[in-house]
Amino acid sequence: MDFGTVFYRSKDSIKNLKIGVHLKKVTSSSIVPQAVIEQKVGSKSSTSSGMHEIRRQQEMLSQREEENFTFHWQQKFYSQREFDMYKHDRDWDGVIERKYHSDVVNLSERPNRRLFTYVNHDKFTNQKENLQYVTTSPNEVPTPLAVKVANVRRRRTATSSRLIDGEGITPKVNIVDQKPSTESRRRNHVIVTPEQTFYIMADLSEKDKEPTEDDEYVLCTIKVDANGVITMKPNFNQAQKPYKIETDRLGKEVYLYTLQNCSNTMNHGEKNREEKMYKELYSRHSQYLSSLVGTEFELPPLGVTRLVMYGEIVSARNFDYDGLFVRYIVHVPSREQGWNSVSGGSLAGVTQTCITKVENRDNVAYFSFPFEAEMFYKKPVADEEDGDRIINSWPKLFFEVCSLDSWSRFRPEGYCAITIPNTPGEHVMELNCWRPVGPSIVSNLRRFFIGGAPELDDLTYTHIPSNFQGSRLSRFGFKTETSGSLKVKVNVLLQSQEFCFSKTAKRAGKKDALMTQLGSTVDYTQIRAVIDAFSKAHERMKTARENALMNLKE
């Protein structure tokens, strides 16, 4: 028989829940009174009147051992033990105990016999359900802490307030409890969602003995949390066999019981009205959210172009030393050139230190380090008279690859720089790096033994220095050597209201102003593509010539 826990989610009030319980005793001890009846009837048992008397006595006996009852949610029914305890006059400490005493005194007799309930504010907890054993040994004993936690019920804390000195209202429950009680320690030991609990019990004590707590058995446990989730153990029987429960006494009496859902069901009209109400509610909530978000797409102001870049430093390859990390700078042109960034000025960052691994005879360090930047461009006031003037300045990315070993020896491994692409989309680039070298072998010895090497004070020197103001840049005498390569992935997004009018301008035969302003960078990208294609063709031609010479020699 499956005694597993089932979960339901209900939008209706839990107060409408009704559970019907049918309890019946089916042990062999019920046959003993039948033999007593046959001895009393004697010879009449062979006659029809005697058999009728036996059946009547058996039906009366079975009715006493069988009980049907329907329980509402949090409906309190007292057991015989509670009835005997609360009917006496004594100084009851709690409000619940005094209420129970008043209810029992007003009752002439109990409407129930063996079936009763424990509600949410009762002190009863099912330890067998809450205790979790770590082994399968029958001799395992739970720890004192596990027993105390098993007695904790997840009750809802009161949030009422009170007036102090006529000035302010403070909550009755103090957030900081300087002297917590034992119950408070148990309740706050585990942070869980508060829930209400309802137990359907059975008093399986013998009739000629006083009932005790050991004779009380849990038939069904129902828990409801604040999210409307109903936890029930066991589930309704429906078309399944009855559940079986066996006492722990020497007689080992066996009882069968069934659980049925007796809640009032809605008719077709009520279901349609409820569905219509929920649809209207969800529609209004959706309209409310739409009013908060808005229907218009966020656009930059007229005449302003937004550049959003999402980048990733993927990997570094074939550098001299291990323990690599990358320092990067997003260089934004000055405000005089029409650029502005959200974070203001240049953006910079440093990746984590990564140990290299061998991959196809290459030493590779994978960073997968993301970075992002958002910039705005507005044509300067001095350039507005020039019309569609080309944007000469564009944001750039500068990278410095460094190494740091276990002896804290720091070495610059390489430098590289790129101009952020002005075409939207994904761009994957493999950047070749270089590093400066010293005038003699001493710098190489210092780099090997104690670390340190010639490095750049300004990363913008990898492209055009930020302080350069001349017309020609000369780097004659500056010695460098090739190092490794850096793989970078950049996703670019361009947004401007002028893009909305580009189709109209093309239809009218006019030139797209913004694309004309981006012309220099577009030309640079096209030129760079042509140069790369020419280099690949040159390499193929060189390889073919070498193969031809080798064939002639053979």
How far apart are the termini? 88 Å
Backbone CA Rg:
43 Å
Basic shape = elongated
Biggest sheet descriptor = 6 strands, antiparallel
Helix content: 25-40%
How many separate helices?
12
How many strands appear in the DSSP assignment?
21
Query: Strand content of the residues, in percent?
Result: 25-35%
Q: In terms of structural class, how would the helical and strand content be classed?
A: alpha+beta
Mean pLDDT value:
78
Low-confidence parts: 157-170
Structure description:
- The protein is of the alpha+beta class and 554 residues long.
- It is 26% helix and 29% strand.
- The protein has helices spanning 32-41, 48-64, 80-86, 95-106, 127-130, 144-150, 182-187, 268-293, 441-449, 502-507, 513-517, 519-553; strands spanning 6-9, 18-25, 66-72, 115-118, 161-164, 168-171, 195-203, 216-225, 229-233, 243-246, 254-261, 304-317, 324-331, 339-341, 347-350, 357-359, 362-378, 396-404, 410-419, 425-436, 480-495.
- The strands form 5 sheets. Strands 12, 14, 16, 17, 20 and 21 form a 6-stranded antiparallel sheet that branches.
- β16 (357-359) and β17 (362-378) form a beta hairpin.
- α1 (32-41) packs antiparallel against α2 (48-64).
- The protein is elongated and about 130 Å long.
- It starts with 5 loop residues before the first strand and ends with a helix.
- The relative contact order is 0.09.
- The model is unreliable at 157-170 (pLDDT under 50).
